[in-house]
Amino acid sequence: MADDSLRILHHTACSTSRHAVDAARAAGAEPEVVQYLKTPLTRPEILDLLRILQDAPADLVRKDKYFKEQGLDPDAHTTPEQVADVLVQHPRLMERPVLIRGDRAIIGRPKDRAERFLRET
């Protein structure tokens, strides 16, 4: 992830994720859009992402209805290793969108956060 190309970990059904892709294109970038549910990240890829993520590792895990249905405990998914393990097992729990450029990554939620990241990089 050393280059300055823009990657967006995207979920097509998510309006916030679609907004990030549209905002990138409006800013003149043509991002590499990775549909992480079709092409799940490996554990090493998730750990690499967590090393550059400007958010807490636990923030990358959605604590939604599905999370609760799996009997998962938010307090047990806070370290990079724990987060990587749960996301490998349940890719749909990845918070989205994730914008990656160079050695920086953010969760693009709320929507204006993605726009700020695009302007800063």
Structure description:
With 121 residues, the protein is an alpha+beta fold. The chain has one domain (6-120): Glutaredoxin (3-Layer(aba) Sandwich). 39% of the residues lie in helices and 14% in strands. The protein is built from 5 helices and 4 strands. It has helices spanning 15-26, 43-52, 65-69, 80-89, 111-120, and strands spanning 6-10, 32-35, 98-101, 104-107. It has a 4-stranded mixed sheet, sandwiched between helices. Strand 1, helix 1 and strand 2 form a beta-alpha-beta unit. The radius of gyration is 14 Å and the shape is globular.
Topology, pairings included?
Elements: E1 6-10, H1 15-26, E2 32-35, H2 43-52, H3 65-69, H4 80-89, E3 98-101, E4 104-107, H5 111-120
Parallel strand pairs: 1-2
Antiparallel strand pairs: 1-3, 3-4
Helix pairs in contact: 1-5, 2-4
Keywords:
121 residues; alpha+beta; 4-stranded mixed sheet; 4 strands; globular
Q: Strand order across the biggest sheet? A: 2-1-3-4
The helix tally amounts to 5
CATH class: Alpha Beta
Write the element-wise H/E pattern from the N-terminal end onward: EHEHHHEEH
Short description:
The chain is α+β, with helices and mostly antiparallel strands and 121 residues long. The protein contains 5 helices and 4 strands; from the N terminus they run βαβαααββα.
